[in-house]
Amino acid sequence: MRVSTFGSYANGLSAMQRLQAALDQTQRQISTGRRILTPADDPLASSRAVDLRESIGRLDQFDRNANVAQSRLAQEESALGSVNNVLQRVRELALQGNNATQSNESRGLIAVEMRQALDQLVQIANQKDGNGSFMFSGNLEATTPVTQAGGAFVYNGDQGQRFIQIGEGRQVADGDSGAAVFFKIRSGNGSFITSPAATNAGTGVLGPGSVVDPTAWDQDQYTVRFIDPDNYEVLDSGGGVVATAAYQDGDALAFSGIEFSLDGQPEAGDEFTVAPSPYQDVFSMVDQLATALEAGGSDVASLALMNNAVNAGLQNIDQAIGNVLDVRVEVGSRLAAIENQVDSNGAFKLNYQDTLASIQDLDYAEALSRLSLQATTLEAAQQSFIRTQSLSLFNYL
Description:
The chain is of the alpha+beta class and 397 residues long. It has helices at residues 5-32, 43-97, 104-125, 178-183, 282-295, 300-360, 364-390; strands at residues 146-149, 152-155, 163-167, 170-173, 185-186, 192-196, 205-211, 222-228, 231-235, 241-246, 252-255, 258-263, 271-276, 279-280. It is built from seven helices and 14 strands. Helix 5 (282-295) packs antiparallel against helix 6. The model is unreliable at 393-397 (pLDDT under 50).
């Protein structure tokens, strides 16, 4: 059978080209450290590698989000700590000012420091984070949260929270609105407030109260009216008498599931109001305390009114401190959740990276061995091709 010289040449050249291509492929793999250079090298593995890289990218984004949330929450925790310190100082000042040994002048000086504390609270509420956004304005990050207008403190933000995704199906709020921290605080003991009528002439001073029977407390407004210094009646919001009782200094007044103490000696006609606790802002609470100390007292009746105002203010401050503590606990739980999620993200990321490496990374030992074999095979093929092409019939004559 006659062998085509051209066919033999073409076959030899094609074989060398395939060997050269394989050698080039191995060299590129070694230079990049990748087993898969193009999707065509292994379509199934390439698709899986794309999915893994996307998953790793999402985890990286989650970690960046977590860092942002962690930073904002850490700043909020610091601010809340400052609020707590200021309120504790206000409480100390109120106790000092309520002491019978104080004069109106000394109470005035205490009120000056209390108003300085109030200014501090406003500054903290209007604090900005590291990015220049207001921390306590909700979603209105460019709006000053707290301003004062007409003697009242106004919240200008909204009640929203920004939620940041820190993991697959996991979001965390990176802050709290000023409404939740500074404005939505139940006054009094958190259930009801007690207050004296401004026209009272006696020395009756209200003490802390509590709900002793929640099923009987109907959250109506009541008025305790003294018929004479030794007897009183309780009227509901409709003016109906619901109870009458005798009074002695220091007695606990109890009705409709609540009780509170009353010290001193009321006069006939003196009244004390009981009503469900409304929401109040912490700034007004401090302002009212300072105002009470500034007013002082010139006689037993006015001193009793001041004592009642300060006692009520102390209850309010305790509620504010408790509210700040609740928010701090929530912030702490979010920080712990972020830390746990970052750890979880890291574990998933490591697993994905290991899987990706097993799919796309090159086994250098195997590749170098293959490169050596391919180079040897190519060299042998080239030598064979050269010898074959140099053959001629004249070699056999």
